[in-house]
């Protein structure tokens, strides 16, 4: 599995955690599949979380993919989302190829019933230089976002900046969405 696991042993019984980002491209909506396309593969560089063994790799043209999470379908009632408005934490890990600069993008939208944005987090054009071979993490917490949130759309992607054939673009793993008390 790529991403976080359901945490059933958390000491707080109101702690919710779920993730949709499983091994392979199953469940993802491929928005752009440029160059040599998305690929799911073994990680090149060990990750701090030793359970993570695979990642997604991009190519020399833009690759983006997304998932739509239906909160009601996952057991989060409209009442809970409107009145409690639990914090929603997103995180993603990314790594540039050792020999090639890359660009990474992430967009996460909290959506209403009509799938219109209530709140948006985005970081576009994060430049990742080659030679580091270090996993970087991006996180964001949605807090007091207002009533009406029914879906979460998680979108990310990138490409290499040298136009090399193959999968020398950004590598992504550990994508996670957490619903917190």
TrEMBL record:
Q: Which GO terms describe its cellular component?
A: cytoplasm; SCF ubiquitin ligase complex
Q: Check the record and name the InterPro entries matching this protein.
A: F-box-assoc_dom, F-box_only, Galactose-bd-like_sf
The FBA domain sits at 4-181
Q: Which BP terms from GO are recorded? A: ERAD pathway; glycoprotein catabolic process; SCF-dependent proteasomal ubiquitin-dependent protein catabolic process
Gene Ontology molecular function? ubiquitin protein ligase activity
State the source organism's domain of life: Eukaryota
What name does UniProt use for this protein? FBA domain-containing protein
């Amino acid at each position: 599995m790529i991403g976080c696991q359901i945490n059933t042993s958390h000491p707080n019984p109101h702690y919710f955690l779920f993730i949709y980002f499983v091994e392979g491209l199953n469940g993802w909506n491929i928005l752009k599949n440029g160059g040599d396309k998305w690929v799911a593969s073994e990680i090149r560089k060990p990750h701090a979380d030793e359970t993570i063994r695979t990642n997604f790799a991009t190519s020399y043209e833009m690759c983006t993919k997304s998932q739509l999470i239906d909160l009601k379908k996952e057991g989060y009632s409209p009442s809970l989302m409107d009145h409690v408005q639990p914090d929603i934490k997103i995180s993603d890990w990314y790594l540039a190829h050792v020999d090639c600069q890359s660009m990474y993008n992430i967009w996460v939208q909290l959506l209403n019933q009509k799938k219109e944005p209530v709140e948006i987090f985005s970081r576009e054009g994060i430049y990742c230089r080659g030679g580091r071979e270090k996993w970087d993490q991006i996180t964001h917490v949605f807090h007091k976002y207002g009533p009406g949130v029914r879906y979460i759309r998680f979108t990310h992607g990138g490409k290499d900046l040298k136009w090399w054939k193959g999968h020398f673009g950004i590598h992504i793993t550990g994508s996670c969405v957490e619903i917190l008390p």
